[in-house]
Design brief:
Layout lengths: L10 H11 L2 H8 L6 H11 L1 E3 L14 E3 L2 E3 L3 E3 L5 H4 L3 H12 L3 E3 L7 H8 L3 E5 L5 H14 L3 E5 L9 H5 L10 H8 L2 H15 L19 H4 L8 H10 L3 E7 L2 H9 L4 E4 L13 H12 L4 E4 L6 H9 L4 E4 L1 H32 L13 E3 L12
Parallel strand pairs: 4-11, 5-6, 6-7, 7-8, 8-9, 9-10, 10-11
Antiparallel strand pairs: 1-12, 2-3
Helix pairs in contact: 1-16, 5-6, 5-16, 13-14, 15-16
Bound molecules: flavin mononucleotide.
Length: 396
């Protein structure tokens, strides 16, 4: 089959391709934000209002976008962020993403709600793999998953702390999306209108695995009543810093806390022994009034830049966005939707295409910025423009 994503020139092209292939409900689940989508729009506006200040006549012929993250070198300053529906948009989409990440020599993060057993993804995806932790109402059961990820050999645990309550995603409610998924008339019609996804993904699960996609990495105790599964998957709203210390004690390797925006929280995460943090507003999916990560980043870097590795995400779609994040002090940029669109459009080939596009854009932007390596990128390379409306994050 011809891979149409070869024709994609940018991430937006991949987004349109994914939109055509996926059901409306699934596409909007991947693409849209919570409430009025203000945070999602702000994420883009904030990045667009940062300008790069190029330097010239530097001989940029030998430029190299490699970085070192947690002591390991990698070819690009990127990480694939965890996205729950990867396995819904493509059959075993998590393996597709992990392989694409491995080919690009960057880490892949598996979401807690993946549809493929973590050990299979680790074995078939290769490369550097991280496991993302959501803590469900049943804490003990969630910690069983941590031990399993540890024993399986994931290199890092990414503990997501910005979602103590369910996301208020009104688009999903209107589209009849429920968690865990159920068959509805609305969903059946939507699926029939998208036969490439219905046959290529959903039917493949049923034929190959004998059932609809499940959550094999969520440890649900055997005696838990089936009709209460939705309650089991409720997020835990009791977590505190002592809990982070508990996770630290359980996890012997790299621990990354995801979803930090306030510098004092970054300090507390470092005090609890985290090796890294992800400055993130969850792509605008959790708190629609939250500050944008790129606006929050400088204060976080000031507070803990010397103590922990800082990754940023939310809204990054171009190589130039990535350079803006690094110039403001991030060590790497995580991407969620960019590769999710790719895998939704064409599996591993589409995810790889997303990474090729970003790699080419990073390489090109380094050239026009007069840079041969990313280590020399700093505050001198960005100009922050005032924004209207502005909430103080941007300066003139
Ligand atoms: C559809 C979707 C599903 C996501 N699922 C998870 C998840 O399971 N766990 C998690 O920690 N973050 C999740 N995220 C957040 C991402 O890890 C990441 O923070 C965000 O997507 C980065 O922004 P970007 O999509 O604009 O690149 C999800 C984001 C999206 C868009």
């Amino acid at each position: 089959m011809t891979d149409l994503t070869r024709n994609a020139l940018n991430i937006e092209d991949l987004r349109r391709m994914a939109k055509r292939r996926l059901t409306k409900a699934l596409f909007e689940f991947c693409d849209r934000g919570s409430e009025d989508e203000v945070a999602m729009r702000d994420n883009r506006a904030a990045l667009d209002h940062i300008k790069l200040m190029p330097r010239v006549l530097n001989d940029v012929s030998g430029r190299d976008p490699a970085i070192t993250l947690f002591g390991k070198s990698q070819a690009l300053p990127l990480v694939i962020a965890p996205t729950g529906p990867a396995g819904f948009v493509w059959y075993r989409g998590e393996i597709a993403l992990a392989r694409a990440a491995t080919a690009a020599d960057i880490p892949y993060t598996l979401s807690s709600t993946g549809n493929t057993p973590m050990e299979t993804i680790l074995a078939e995806g290769g490369g550097t793999q991280w496991y993302q932790l959501y803590v469900w109402a049943d804490v003990a059961a969630s910690l069983v998953t941590v031990e399993r990820a540890r024993d399986a050999g994931f290199e890092a645990l990414v503990f997501t702390v910005d979602s103590p309550t369910p996301n208020n995603r009104e688009f999903d409610t209107r589209n009849g999306v429920v968690f865990p998924p159920k068959i509805t008339v609305q969903g059946a019609i939507d699926s029939l209108l998208h036969p490439r996804w219905l046959v290529g993904t959903l039917a493949r699960y049923v034929l190959a695995d004998g059932h609809m996609p499940k959550f094999p990495n969520v440890h649900i105790p055997d005696d838990f009543p089936a009709e209460k599964r939705a309650d089991f998957l409720a997020r835990n709203d009791t977590l505190d810093w002592d809990f982070l210390r508990r996770v630290r004690d359980l996890w012997p390797r790299t621990l990354i806390v995801k979803g930090i925006l306030h510098p004092d929280d970054a300090v507390r995460a470092a005090d609890c022994g985290a090796n890294g943090i992800i400055v993130s507003n969850h792509a605008g999916n959790t708190n629609d009034a939250a500050v944008t990560p790129i606006d929050a980043l400088p204060a976080v870097v000031e507070a803990v830049g010397e103590r922990v590795t800082i990754i940023i995400d939310s809204g990054f779609r171009r190589g130039s966005d990535v350079l803006k994040g690094l110039a403001l002090g991030a060590d790497a940029v995580a991407i969620g939707r960019a590769t999710l669109y790719g895998v939704g459009a064409a599996g591993e080939a589409g995810a790889s295409r997303a990474l090729q596009i970003l790699a080419a854009e990073i390489h090109r932007t380094m050239g026009v910025m007069g840079l041969t390596d990313l280590g020399s990128l700093g505050r001198d390379h960005v100009v922050l423009l005032a924004r209207i409306p502005s909430y103080g994050g941007a300066v003139a």
